[in-house]
Amino acid sequence: MSPEFVIRIAGEAVFTVLKASAPMLLIALGVGLIISIFQATTQIQEQTLAFVPKIVAVLLALLLFGPWIMTTLVDFTYDILNNLYKYIG
Question: What predicted TM-score, i.e. pTM, was given to this entire model?
Fold first, then answer.
């Protein structure tokens, strides 16, 4: 295995992790922004008001995007194993 191959695989791994986690992160960011605006306008500074809706939103996003995330991770794993087989075999 060449260093270029290992660097390419590492880059693909980082990109796959970012791609798989992006839906939950973006939804948590959006919900957090909405909750922050709500707290600023009503002057309610309750800590659980910030965390509970984000947790629920992330869990719903995980249920909604779960099959797509699993497909992305399985495709990446298949590509890694296929590339390793080419180099070994």
Answer: 0.79
